Structures are given as C-alpha cells and as structure tokens.
C-alpha cells in the first residue's frame, strides 16, 4: 500500500499542501492514506510524521513529494528511512526519484548514508582540532568557573579548616553542584591532599 506524507513549514493559510497532495495522488496514493504536518522541519514533535510512522506496516511504501518534506537534515532523513526499513517499509521521493524498492534507489540511499557518516566525522574532527588549538593557547573549553579569586581562596581555607561542604554552601552562597564542580576542576581532594587553586 502507498502511504503519503506532506509537510508545509507554516500554520498560515498562504502555504498549502495542494501541490504535494496532487503529486501524491497522481503517484497512486489513496486520499485516505495521506498524513500532513504544518510545522517547521526542525521540529521534533511533528504529529503527522509520528502518526504515519505508526500507521505503516511491512510491505507499505511511504511516499513524499520531496526529500526535505520528510527530514530536517540528511542525518534526520536517514534516521527516518532506517526506521522505515526496520519496519520493512520502503520509501519513495517523487521529485528526486529515490525509491528504495529498486536496486538503484537502495544504492542511492546507501550513498546518502555514507555521506552523512562522512559529514559527522568531519564535524567531529573539526571540534577536536578546535579544542586542541584552544588548549595550546591556554583556553579551556566549557563554562567559565563560577567561583574564582578571593572567594575560592576563602572557601578552600574553610574546607581545609574542617568546615563541611554544606556549611560552605550556606556561608558563601554557592550551590552544592557549583562547589563540587569547582573543587573537581582545581583538583581539591581535602585538607590531606590539597592542591593549590
């Protein structure tokens, strides 16, 4: 059975699914098996998409007018198509001519998968290189320290003097998680193994 999915990016009346509907009906999708969203592709909570993914059964083909109607990015599109594949549901995009029921469509899908994996690897490589470059320049990633300077010195002195962490939090007006993170960052291990801030 052919099942259609349509999406427009806006709730406004100016955007219509008519073009997509006509193309899907012409491709053989039954009007009773059309699902629709009026939401940005970036939204995770698309009810129409959730409904169509729940509706399809093994042997069905999910048909869209264009690839960008289904996924917000290449990786998101591949995630959805892999979900369909796990349910033994094929996928067809009319505009791009992708059809996973054919050998060439399956090949194209695998090429997309390889490109998405390559894109993720490049992004990860850039992040690691950027962090390394920042470290070489003396910058450490993450949020700036919340407790610094004289306040930190006073807190360390109080802890080394036997004050509990709970008392330090009350007396210095800091959250417990902030205190713990700061102590871990500077390597403080208690008065027996204090490291200098």
Automatic annotation (TrEMBL):
Keywords: DNA integration, DNA recombination, DNA-binding
Record Pfam families: Resolvase
Top-rank lineage group of the source organism: Bacteria
Protein name: Recombinase family protein
Family: Belongs to the site-specific recombinase resolvase family.
Lipid metabolism as UniProt keyword: no
Record domain Resolvase/invertase-type recombinase catalytic: where: 1-138
Gene3D superfamilies in the cross-refs: Homeodomain-like, Resolvase, N-terminal catalytic domain
CDD domains according to UniProt: SR_ResInv (cd03768)
């Amino acid at each position: 059975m052919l099942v259609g999915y349509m999406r427009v990016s806006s709730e406004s009346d100016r955007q219509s699914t008519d073009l997509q509907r006509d193309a899907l009906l012409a491709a053989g999708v039954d009007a009773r098996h059309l699902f629709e969203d009026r939401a940005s592709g970036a939204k995770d909570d698309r009810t129409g998409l959730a409904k169509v993914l729940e509706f399809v059964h093994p042997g069905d083909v999910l048909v869209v007018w264009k690839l960008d109607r289904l996924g917000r990015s290449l990786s998101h599109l591949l995630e959805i198509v892999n979900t369909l594949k796990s349910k033994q549901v094929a996928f067809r995009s009319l505009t791009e001519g992708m059809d996973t029921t054919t050998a060439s469509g399956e090949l194209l899908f695998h090429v997309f998968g390889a490109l998405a994996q390559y894109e993720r690897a490049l992004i990860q490589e850039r992040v690691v290189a950027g962090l390394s470059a920042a470290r070489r320049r003396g910058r450490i990633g993450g949020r700036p320290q919340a407790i610094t300077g004289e306040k930190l010195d006073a807190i360390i002195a109080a802890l080394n003097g036997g004050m509990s962490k709970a008392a330090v939090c009350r007396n210095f007006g800091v959250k417990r998680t902030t205190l713990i993170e700061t102590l871990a960052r500077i390597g403080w291990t208690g008065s027996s193994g204090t490291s200098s801030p």
